[in-house]
Design goal:
Order of helices and strands: HHHHHEEH
CATH architecture: Up-down Bundle
Structural class: mainly alpha
CATH class: Mainly Alpha
Radius of gyration: 17 Å
Number of domains: 1
CATH superfamily: dinb family like domain
Number of helices: 6
Distance between the termini: 10 Å
Strand content: 5-15%
Length: 181
């Protein structure tokens, strides 16, 4: 359930925070739209090219696409207190594997963001790194990280696309209709 405009006005009085969350939802829709176009782009490319080892990113086009989705579900599941899906990136060998993972992840993220937009409190996630360091992040900061992380890796895909002589997917935010409110 996306916020209707009347609901938006009801909650906007809480200030910049809610407006920021709404904008973050829009940017997630932007990322998902661009991701779907990269999937279509990949359908025109031989699997050998998609799985070829490359410098940067996660080492291949397929693994980089999987990685952004995996990070999205990791953070969302941690914030909502549900089990993180653990998949070994080395078992991902086809575009179908990546698309299926995206189909599973996207609605979970969308439901979380929609419910979070109605939560006016500032929530904090405590995490421990692999080396034992503790960190505290606001949910809003984590959501911003999820968004910018995917945008960063889309840039890597664009570089690889040009290296193999194929026009990359346009990620131009200005020409897209991605707002879903």
């Amino acid at each position: 359930m996306l916020l209707e405009s009347t609901e938006l006005f009801k909650y906007i009085k809480n200030g910049h925070f809610l407006y920021g969350v709404i904008s973050l939802i829009d940017l997630c829709h932007y990322n998902w739209q661009v991701r779907e176009e990269w999937f279509k782009w990949c359908e025109t490319i031989a699997i050998e090219e998609l799985t070829k080892k490359r410098a940067g990113g996660m080492g291949s086009i397929i693994h980089t696409l999987f990685h952004v989705i995996d990070c999205e579900q990791l953070w969302i599941n941690q914030m909502q207190g549900t089990a993180v899906i653990k998949k070994d990136i080395n078992t991902i060998s086809s575009l179908s594997d990546v698309k299926t993972f995206s189909i599973i992840t996207k609605p979970v993220t969308q439901r979380f963001l929609e419910s979070y937009a109605l939560d006016t409190g500032e929530r904090i996630l405590e995490v421990k790194s692999k080396n034992g360091n503790s960190f505290s992040f606001t949910y809003e900061r984590i959501i911003r990280h999820i968004i910018t992380h995917e945008i960063h890796h889309i840039g890597q895909l664009s570089v690889w696309s040009r290296e193999i002589g194929i026009e990359p997917v346009s990620s131009d935010l200005l020409i897209r209709d991605y707002v879903r409110i």
